[in-house]
Amino acid sequence: MADFPILSAILALPLLGAVACLVAGAGTARWIALATTLATFALSIGLWATFEIGGAQWQFAENANLFGDFSWALGIDGIALMLIVLTAFLMPICIGASWTAITERVQEYMAAFLFMETLMLGVFMAQDIFLFYIFFEAGLIPMYLIIGIWGGKDRIYAAYKFFLYTLLGSVLMLIAMLWMVNHAGTTFIPELLVTDFPPEAQTWLWLAFFASFAVKMPMWPVHTWLPDAHVQAPTAGSVILAGVLLKMGGYGFVRFSLPMFPEASAQLIWVIFGLSMVAVVYTSLVALVQQDMKKLIAYSSVAHMAFVTIGLFAFNRQGIEGGLIVMLSHGLVSGALFLCVGVVYDRLHTRDIDRYGGLSNNMPAYSLLFLVFTMAAVGLPGTSGFVGEFLSLVGAYEINSWVGAVATTGIILGAAYMLWLYWRISFGTARTAEAAALPDLSKRELALLAPIAAAVFWMGIYPESFMAPMRQDVSVLLARIERAAPESDARVTRGEPTQAAEPHAAAGEGH
User: Is 345 exposed, middle or buried, given 0-12, 13-18 or 19+ CB atoms closer than 10 A?
Assistant: First the structure.
């Protein structure tokens, strides 16, 4: 695989599948999309199997100059690898979830999903900063179409809101990128990662990138597009939106904000912590009063993403690794929860929680899997949710105990709204005769949910499989940001000096 352009092949495969879908019939398009996404997933597993843990930071690199300073530069580290595998894993599940739910313009729908897969994977592979920007922004187009064409009754409003929120923030990021390239004389991301930008410029650059990544995550208070988008999107659209698209914001923080602007990240850390603490408490309380299942899970996503930002900006290994694992776990768990909502919505055509109840009596398999994902969302030990949230909280407590304490309330509130949701859906007596007559999971639905449940337990019981490829990259990131690390509660307690006291001693490290 050393000489084979595996990354370009992975990007080209869904693109070719999308073209094939457009010229095929509706029934054939479904099978083409499924076969294409399964083949892409198989290639991503091959990527994982041949990735050399502890080897070079950037592997499978490809670089070809296209025109001027713009180059087709691809390469991945362990962090990008895990997000690529997550994306490729969820895509065939999304195609399966749309198998019977989408009956109009099937060819265009399948093509949109395959085109979006290429763009999402490109975000994690790009090593040219403008190539990254193209992939990052172009991903809006197919999701905009998926919501706007195949969504609910208010789909046009939700699609425009999603598009405008995410686009406007990225305009500032593009301006910042142009300044960075002019200053550093390169568009190559690995070179930009070791460039020391002037401290006086870092603040403005950090804010410009923050404007884009905060919306993408999404962070409070620019999260309001997310519930509308989730409610109106088809089930598979919600799965990929929560599972992958939200992770691009966290990936941006790890790839750009922290290593490229470490001093600004340290100075503005309370912006992140302040917004994240509000998000944990506020959006959890909002989730508690929701009657729409999709809205409840959407607001819970904002709270869980706050654990990501708190962990990533804790400036320590536990926090960063925890934030990355929360991203992976949330991609699995939130995607599964939206699939669970889609299962009952396809039967009863309502997301109103009060229309259900007692489903454990007539849908035992559904209720069991729904319980697994509910417990993972709560952070039950043995599931993927526990590992990431525990590490994030450890990192948060080390840097500031108040931040850790407020973040911990998210665990309590999360248990409240998720367990209450589960009780109202699966326990008690059926509130309607229709709910009491709902059939259990079909073989297709079981085939969609069971692999995610297996992955949730795998990550919860043996997280080392997912942490090992990322560990060296976290070490590189820590070496880059430790010179600016803010004073933490733990160091103050032990009477240790902080790295921030010697910013100039480490200024040349990494060159």
Answer: middle
